[in-house]
Design brief:
Shape: globular
Structural class: alpha/beta
Strand order of the largest sheet: 5-4-13-14-15-12-16
Number of strands: 18
Helix content: 25-40%
Radius of gyration: 21 Å
Number of helices: 13
Largest sheet: 7 strands, mixed
Strand content: 15-25%
Length: about 400
């Protein structure tokens, strides 16, 4: 009997667990090393677009997540006074891109991914570093407090501050501050009904969205110097910045407690890495291509990375060739969108809003074109975990990612 190959995944977030689940399904012996004391994610909700849901079909998780879709009816883009600049609806998005947009708590996704691994595959409180990336003739070596681990493949999913990235590419400049900070909150707001929306102001944005479990996910972003904090608490800061914006924003803020609000500065990788691998080590997610959240694609691209990596696990150069151009293009688009929705000049904002409103009336689906080539991504084959997967039944072939092998 052939000996199973060993994969070590550094990082137990969404990308790392997706890669681990896909590799485990392909017959690998997988160990996930998470330095935090639990898998409970630091964060709030995540938006999964049709592209990542199709990727999750490979490990049999896509339909489970699709069933959590809460967006019904219309939604769109507003001004702080409440005026709609553009509107769309869930059915239109689903028809155009072959599936729904699903917003769910990160913990829900983490738990679903972890459930697809053996109970002993995930080690929490396990810090790890790459001591040797290995090459074609020798395995990689991962150092942990409990000793060294040899691996045929190391998946570096250790996030935006990736130590593995610095080890593999010490001359790369790393991340840069994106120019704005973000706040996030997930709370119950009984009796609150509203249409999903994102609101663009002067150097500020706000988004409000219902979750399937009845809670509300809200996020905000504003231009600000790096490393600032509110003089009192972050809920008070949100009230100062957004308290006079349209409904339901005041009601959401009234229901939030200071401890419900998370704040993080946004950083991204401005200069693409020369590759997403070195030796037997592959980078995925924010470790490889951290991007602003303005397209909602950070986690989605990590999931794509993980599934494509599992297919190209024997040819990491092919993995880089498949992923580096796509993630670079999406990251650059996210930076451009950030400049548009975080504009601060009043004259420019007036022109922007006038153009958006006019285009929305003339061609209501025009704004969805911004997600073409992103949300419509499909695997060129259908290596689904279940033949009855809804997305699998709609699958069509495309050359976009080169060849992908059917997972076992």
């Amino acid at each position: 009997m052939a000996q199973s190959r060993r994969a070590v995944v550094i990082g137990g977030g969404i990308g790392g667990l997706t890669a681990a689940a896909a590799l485990h399904r392909g017959g690998w012996d997988v160990a996930v090393l998470e330095r935090a004391p639990s898998l409970e994610p630091v964060g709030a909700a995540i938006s999964l677009a049709p592209n990542s849901l199709r990727a999750l079909d490979v490990i049999g998780l896509g339909d489970e997540i699709r069933d959590l879709a809460a967006w019904q009816g219309d939604g769109g883009l507003r001004t702080p006074s409440g005026r709609w600049l553009s509107r769309t609806d869930a059915d239109t998005v689903g028809e155009r891109f072959g599936g729904p947009l699903v917003l769910l708590h990160r913990a829900t996704l983490i738990n679903s991914l972890a459930a697809r691994l053996p109970a002993d595959a995930v080690r929490i409180g396990a810090a790890a570093t790459v001591a040797d990336p290995g090459d074609a003739d020798r395995p990689a070596c991962v150092s942990t407090p409990d000793g060294d681990l040899e691996a045929d493949l190391v998946v570096a999913a250790d996030g935006i501050r990736s130590a593995v990235r610095r080890t593999l590419f010490p001359d790369h400049p790393g991340t840069v501050y994106s120019g704005f900070t973000t706040w996030r909150v997930v709370i119950p707001v009984p009796g609150l009904e509203f249409a999903s929306h994102e609101t663009w102001g002067q150097g500020r944005i706000w988004g409000s969205h219902p979750l399937k479990d009845g809670r509300v996910y809200a996020y905000a972003a504003a231009t600000a110097p790096a490393a600032q904090q509110a003089p009192d608490d972050e809920r008070a800061e949100l009230l100062r910045r957004y308290g006079d914006w349209h409904d339901p924003i005041p009601a959401i803020l009234a229901a939030a407690r200071p401890e419900d609000v998370l704040r993080h500065d946004v950083h991204h990788i401005a200069e693409p890495l020369p590759a997403h691998h070195r030796g037997r080590v592959a980078l995925i997610g924010d470790a490889a291509h951290a991007m602003p959240p303005t397209l909602g694609q950070g986690g989605n691209q990590a999931i794509e990375d993980a599934i494509v990596l599992a297919a190209y696990c024997d040819d990491l150069a092919a993995y880089t060739a498949a992923r580096l151009p796509r993630t670079t293009a999406i990251a650059r688009r996210a930076v451009r969108v950030g400049r548009l929705n975080m504009m601060t000049g009043r004259a420019g904002i007036a022109v922007r809003n006038t153009v958006l409103a006019a285009l929305s009336k003339a061609a209501p689906q025009l704004f969805l074109r911004g997600f073409e080539g992103i949300a419509d991504w499909r695997l060129p084959q259908a290596p689904y975990a279940a033949g009855k997967t809804r997305a699998g039944n709609r699958q069509r072939r495309t050359p976009r990612e080169g060849r992908l092998h059917r997972t076992r």
